[in-house]
Amino acid sequence: MKIELVKYTDGGVKLVGDAARLSGFPCDDDKKIVDIMVENDYGSILEHIYFTFRVSDISRALWMEILEHRIASHTAKSQRYVNYSDVKYFDPNFSSGKAKDVYDNAVKNCYKTYCDLLELGEPMEKARYILPNASYISAYWTINARSLINFINLRVCVRALPEMREFAMEVLKIARKTYPEIFGKIGCRKYQNGGVCPEKKKKCAGVI
Hints:
The protein is built from 9 helices and 4 strands. By secondary structure, the chain is of the alpha+beta class.
């Protein structure tokens, strides 16, 4: 998994401060304004700040879950126009070597069938249907700060899909480094709710 921040809104803290004052917020301290916005979930003003990530070596299964977060822009490597003969896929870390062998054989057979179809003259747009969810993809992902907070709240949860949690934790690390004023106190919902998880019936460590 590789995640790179390729572009972000520069001067975002001042931008939020200026926007808040324009709306009548009586404060000249930009950092204090941001802290109040985050602390009290006045998130709409944070939508002026954007992040663009380039992600690669993530599974198509994970990408489908990321697409559930609709307040974002997505551009993924095409399976219709790009040749996927190169066998690269996600390993979900099975509990036994036998299970891993079964999995590897099945995935490699899918790729072999894909290549066989291409050799028979079938176009990539048809052959791609045999490719597994484990196939690695690359994509650009642009998301505003408010939506990114929501994404992190949900996806760093200890019950999240392991690949998704790894992705979300890395994104949080990058976001905190870029804008500690906004993301320094952001974590899972239990972490931000003072130790109270909204999914009360399930065990939660509340770790970020």
